[in-house]
Amino acid sequence: MAVQGLGAIDQQYDGSALKIGIVHARWNKEIIDALVAGAIKKLKALNVKEENIIVQSVPGSFELPFASRSVLKDENLKLDAVIPIGVLIKGSTMHFEYICDSVTHALMRVQEETHKPVIFGVLTCLTEEQARKRAGLDPGMHNHGEDWGAAAVEMPLKYSR
């Protein structure tokens, strides 16, 4: 069963002064779309203005670190945080392990290099069923995109200003 999220603590932050980026992969579209929608829903609930939510896409999860670094360094965007969103589902080869490991470490480096919050919005699931549950697509399950949206508001307010 998917964890039910952060709870009431994520409601205490006001994101009205923030500009947040979402960079998402295009693989596993149904799951990605639900996660992006969940993140946007939470950002808006925490007062991030719609015009201050920048959404871009990349081919796959492997491209998330490069794109995340690019949008965070873009002086025209002036983002406070970025949420890279991807879905990796284990197949029958080692590809899953290599991509999971590489993307995870690269996103951490982006955060360290840019001194901006990079919210880890990459699902690494063994089955499509697990991914669907974490995207809130199955009845009664929680959309983890909402948690990522809450974290993207909390982190710059607490640590970047």
Q: Please, could you describe this protein's structure?
A:
- It comes from Komagataella pastoris.
- One of its GO terms (molecular function) is 6,7-dimethyl-8-ribityllumazine synthase activity.
- This is 6,7-dimethyl-8-ribityllumazine synthase.
- Its EC number is 2.5.1.78.
- Belongs to the DMRL synthase family.
- The protein is of the alpha/beta class.
- The chain has a single domain (20-160), classed as Rossmann fold.
- Helix content is 44%, strand content 16%.
- The protein is built from five helices and four strands.
- It has helices spanning 29-45, 64-73, 95-114, 128-134, 144-160; strands at residues 20-25, 53-58, 81-89, 121-125.
- A four-stranded parallel β-sheet has the order 2-1-3-4, sandwiched between helices.
- β1 (20-25), α1 (29-45) and β2 (53-58) form a beta-alpha-beta unit.
- α1 packs across α5 (144-160) and α2 (64-73) packs parallel to α3.
- The chain is globular and about 45 Å long.
- The N and C termini lie far apart (36 Å).
Counting DSSP H or I runs of 4 or more residues, the number of helices is 5
General shape? globular
Order of secondary-structure elements: EHEHEHEHH
Return residue spans where pLDDT drops below 50 for at least 5 consecutive residues. Answer: none
The profile of the biggest β sheet is:
4 strands, parallel
Task: Please state the structural category.
Answer: alpha/beta
InterPro entries: LS, LS/RS, LS/RS_sf
Subunit structure: Homopentamer.
Family: Belongs to the DMRL synthase family.
EC number: 2.5.1.78
